[in-house]
Amino acid sequence: MTPAARLSGAIDLLCAIQNAPRRPADATANAFFRERRYIGGGDRRAISTIVWDVLRGWKRLQWHLKDISGDISPRLLCSASLLLSGETMDNVRRLFSGERYAQKPLTSREDMALKGLEGKELSTQKQSLSVRLEYPDWLEGALRETFGNRLPDEMEAMLGTPTLDLRVNLLKGSRETAIRELRRESLQAEETKLSPWGLRLDGRQPVTATQAFRDGLVEIQDEGSQLVVAAADARGEHRVLDYCAGAGGKTLALAMTMENRGHIVACDVHEKRLDGAVKRLRRAGVHNVERHLLVSGDKWAKRRAGSFDRVLVDAPCSGTGTWRRNPDARLRLTPEDIQELVIKQAQILDRAASLVKPGGRMIYATCSLLACENGQQIDAFLKRRTDFVRVSKEQTSELLPSELRSKAQFSLTPLRDGTDGFFACVLERVVTEGQVALKMDSSAGVPATSSPDEDLST
User: Fold this and answer.
1) Helix/strand/coil (H/E/C) assignment for every residue in 239-292
2) Is 328 marked as a binding-site residue?
3) Pfam families annotated for this entry (predicted)?
4) N or C: which end of the chain has fewer CB within 10 A?
5) Of 200-204, 236-240, 413-417, which range is least confident?
6) Structure confidence by residue, pLDDT tens digits, 30-84
7) Does the annotation flag 314 for ligand binding?
8) Which domain CATH number covers 180?
């Protein structure tokens, strides 16, 4: 495709994203390219880069175009993004030639609005902090609660282009093997600093087209997400529940740490997500996982109360920690979303807690930067459930890097850790004296009765 055709494709994709304001941009982009299979891989990456640059600079672009009359169209946004990235006005005009596959020429209104941007920079000290750093005005208090004086630096790091992180599937080979196989296909990967299984590539790379990916040797997974799995410390003798499994990214990693032994149940409320995990499980060579769809009125959880050694709760959240990858999420998030999510997270924690066996662990994780979804959510849970405590520093997972190993809960950020923003906390269900006595009776041949929280009846 010519540069003009790529720009035209980017404008069409941005139109599609604007027409589906509550749908994630990556989902819209996937559907957009599926319908246009004639667009090759390189062109898809070029079109996506233009659009994602616009989404990352959305508030700043709007600020620069604020004085023009009428709507700020995708044509104007894409053009302004190019100009504020150093492109000349003459070159931008040439991209709107009106020739085959190119957009029609700029109108006099568009030309007038754009030519004043030539030579200017996207960010300026004249912009407010929330505009310059691309976060919602109403969220500033919550972000300052998390970061304090570090807010400008942390939010500036969120504006950067994320790396592409991979997790090596140790069921199929080592990190050294994966690096070698990727190098054969001209992809230069380096080991991550924190995850023991991670590899890192710069920018957008065609990983899914590689033999290493097709053979299940590598999976795309942010390093922070890998560390959440490391914190779970799931082993081959364990019975493990991935309570909000989605399409199974963390399920796959759990199976790897368990060496394909033990038993994992991957649950979710969305059947389509669970179905999407099947292909990934097969490709990874995982066979210790069963899937279960959570539905209203389901007695599955009641029958399995108190039966899991590990319960991972990757809770639905604001996604503020993934703004580098999903800049459109900044535009969709509302105060009402936060309020609803905090309530939902508490409900999920309470339901998941009943499934943890005495002495077992629950790992709560989010990709959020907000205290109300993270530490405060855990504090409130521990007030409700006195039979849970944070694990001691001596009990944390040895799979974690040394700087995280002594922490029952930790946060990760792009600025400090080079990962997406993540929070994880490991809780343990206390074994009470009564439960110890029941175990002793059972081992002596006396049937142990179930506690109300461990009712196995239907």
Assistant:
1) EEEECCCCCCHHHHHHHHHCCCCCEEEEEECCHHHHHHHHHHHHHHCCCCEEEE
2) no
3) Methyltr_RsmB-F, RsmF-B_ferredox
4) C
5) 200-204
6) 999 999 989 998 899 999 999 999 999 999 999 999 988 778 999 999 999 999 9
7) yes
8) 3.30.70.1170
